[in-house]
Specification:
single chain; alpha+beta; two-stranded antiparallel ribbon
Length: about 350
C-alpha cells in the first residue's frame, strides 16, 4: 500500500527531480516496516539509515525532492519502543533523531515546524512505550493472580492430605488394636480407611490437575460450610460434635475458608494432642461476621506443644486474606482452641 501511494504521488507531482531515487527509498521504508515486530532495531536502522543517505544527497544536490508517503516511517518509533529492548530503544531513537535533524536541514523550516517534526516521532515512540507498559503490567497482574491461586491450591492440598492421612493413621491404629479381639469391628475400620483414602485421592487429583500447566480444571464445587457436618462422628475417639448456625447467602470464599480452617484444626488436634476425647466445632454468625471455633479437651504433646507450623500459618493466611482475624492457643480450662472471625462479605479488596 505504501509503495502504491508513492507511485501515485510520483505521477501526480509536477516536480520529478530524483523521483526514481525517492521511490526506491519509499520501497525500502515499506519493506523495513514489515520487520517492525520481530526486528525493530534492524527495521529502524535500515529505514532511517536509507533516509539519512537520501537527505544528505538532497542537501548536496540542492534540488532533490522527497515523498510525503515516506511518512510511513512514523510507525517505526512506535514499534521500537513497543517490541524492542532497552538497548535497542536507545540506539534506534538516536538514529531517528539524527535523521530528523538531517531532514530539517534538507528542507528549510520554521521553528514551529521543527518542533512538530521532533514531536511527531517522539509522540510515536512515547505511545509505543505506554502500550508496552500497559501490556507488561497486565501480564504481571495475570501472573500474580495465577501465583496466588496456586498458593491457595497448595494450601488446599496440604489441608486435605493432612486431614485425611491423620484420620487414616488413627483408624489404622484402632484397627490393629481390634484385629485380635473384634475382627468385625476391625473390618469396619478397614472400610472407613478405604473410603477416606478414596476421598483424598479424588481431591488430590483435582487439585494437582489444576496445578498442572495446561490442564483443564475440574469444575466440581469445593467443600463448604455444610460439609463441616461430615466431621461429626457418632462413635469413636475423639468424639466430634458440630453445631452450625443457619447461615444463608454466605459467599463461596468464606464458606470454603471456614471448612478448610476447621479441617486443619482437626488435623492439628489429631497430630499434636494426646488424651483427646472430645472436639467441638461451633459456627455462629450475625449480619456482618461469622465465627468459627474448634475446641478440644486434649493435652499438647511435648514435640508439638505450641502446635506451630505450616498448619497455623495456613489458617491465619486464610482468615487474613478475607479480612478476618485468627487466634489459636490453650484454653483456661485445658485443651486447645482455634477461633477464626470472618466478615460475611469476604475481603473488601
Amino acid at each position: 500500500m505504501a509503495v502504491a501511494a508513492s507511485l501515485i504521488e510520483a505521477v501526480l507531482r509536477p516536480d520529478r527531480t530524483w523521483l526514481l531515487a525517492a521511490l526506491v527509498v519509499s520501497g525500502v521504508v515499506a519493506v523495513a516496516v514489515l520487520w517492525r515486530r520481530t526486528q525493530p532495531l534492524a527495521a529502524v536502522a535500515v529505514a532511517f539509515g536509507t533516509l539519512i543517505v537520501f537527505d544528505v544527497a538532497r542537501i548536496v544536490a540542492s534540488d532533490a525532492t522527497g515523498l510525503a508517503s515516506i511518512a510511513l516511517a512514523l510507525v517505526l518509533p512506535y514499534a521500537l519502543l513497543r517490541w524492542g529492548s532497552g538497548r535497542e530503544a536507545v540506539i534506534g531513537l538516536g538514529i531517528i533523531l539524527v535523521w530528523v535533524s538531517v531532514t530539517l536541514v534538507a528542507v528549510p523550516t520554521t521553528v514551529p515546524e521543527v518542533v512538530a517534526g521532533y514531536g511527531f516521532f517522539l509522540f510515536s515512540a512515547a505511545l509505543g512505550a505506554a502500550i508496552r507498559f500497559h501490556a507488561t503490567t497486565r501480564m504481571r497482574e495475570i501472573e500474580q493472580a495465577e501465583l496466588r491461586q496456586r498458593h491457595e491450591l497448595a494450601r488446599d492440598l496440604h489441608d486435605t492430605i493432612g486431614h485425611y492421612m491423620s484420620g487414616i493413621v488413627i483408624q489404622a491404629q484402632a484397627g490393629r488394636a481390634l484385629a485380635a479381639s473384634d475382627p468385625d469391628r476391625a473390618l469396619a475400620v478397614l472400610e472407613t480407611i478405604e473410603q477416606a483414602a478414596t476421598r483424598v485421592l479424588a481431591e488430590m487429583r483435582t487439585i494437582v490437575g489444576v496445578l498442572r500447566v495446561g490442564a483443564e480444571p475440574d469444575l466440581a464445587p469445593q467443600p463448604g460450610l455444610a460439609d463441616i457436618e461430615r466431621f461429626a462422628r457418632a462413635a469413636g475417639t475423639p468424639r466430634i460434635e458440630v453445631d452450625l448456625s443457619d447461615l444463608h447467602d454466605l459467599p463461596a470464599e468464606v464458606s470454603v475458608a471456614l471448612y478448610r480452617i476447621a479441617q486443619e484444626a482437626l488435623t492439628n488436634t489429631m497430630r499434636h494432642a494426646c488424651n483427646v476425647t472430645r472436639v467441638h466445632i461451633d459456627v455462629v454468625g450475625d449480619v456482618d461476621r461469622v465465627r468459627l471455633t474448634v475446641r478440644d479437651d486434649g493435652v499438647p504433646t511435648p514435640a508439638g506443644g505450641a502446635r506451630a507450623g505450616y498448619g497455623l500459618v495456613s489458617m491465619r493466611e486464610r482468615a487474613t486474606l478475607l479480612g478476618g482475624t485468627f487466634h489459636a492457643g490453650p484454653t483456661a480450662g485445658g485443651g486447645w482452641q482455634v477461633e477464626a472471625m470472618l466478615p460475611r462479605v469476604g475481603a473488601t479488596s
